[in-house]
TrEMBL record:
SUPFAM superfamilies: Glyoxalase/Bleomycin resistance protein/Dihydroxybiphenyl dioxygenase. The lineage of its organism: Bacteria, Bacillati, Bacillota, Bacilli, Bacillales. CDD domains: VOC. It comes from Paenibacillus odorifer. This is VOC domain-containing protein. InterPro entries: Glyas_Bleomycin-R_OHBP_Dase, Glyas_Fos-R_dOase_dom, VOC_core. Coiled coil: none annotated. Residues 8-124 form the VOC domain. Signal peptide: none annotated. Transmembrane segments: none annotated.
């Protein structure tokens, strides 16, 4: 292993209005576990891997931006079965977009959390992801 290099991403910080409600939503829909509670913040892990750091914010900014009047996400999750996850989220009334099959680039869809933060989900079997 190289020393003094970035080895990955530790957390993605996400602003939310109601910390407990948002954390429960992510736990329910994605099986994350809650760790490291601090005043106004908490960490969400997948097993022992940090995923999201929710921070309570009374500001209306969210983890989304626009390009040519189209909302874009800042975080892409990966899955080994985009169709099953998409169907589950639809059945739970989560706001999701359609699945886009981009051939060699994989399959994608976007979803919104309770606060309007936008996320992308990606399935690609030819890309090695270490987790």
């Amino acid at each position: 292993m190289e020393v003094g290099r970035i080895l990955g991403i530790a957390y993605n910080v996400i602003p939310v209005e109601d910390l407990e409600k948002s954390a429960a939503w992510f736990v329910k829909h994605f099986g994350f576990n809650i760790r490291d509670r601090r005043e106004g913040n908490l960490s969400l892990f997948r097993d022992n891997r940090p995923i999201l750091y929710l921070t309570q914010s009374d500001h209306d900014s969210r983890a989304v931006f626009e390009v040519r009047d189209k909302k874009r996400w800042v975080i892409t999750f990966f899955t080994n079965d985009v169709l099953t996850l998409h169907q589950y989220l639809v059945s739970e009334d989560v706001k999701v977009g359609n699945i886009s099959d981009e051939g060699e680039y994989g399959k994608f869809f976007v979803f919104e959390d309770l606060d309007g933060n936008l996320f992308d989900v990606w399935e690609h079997h030819d890309c090695e992801l270490v987790y």
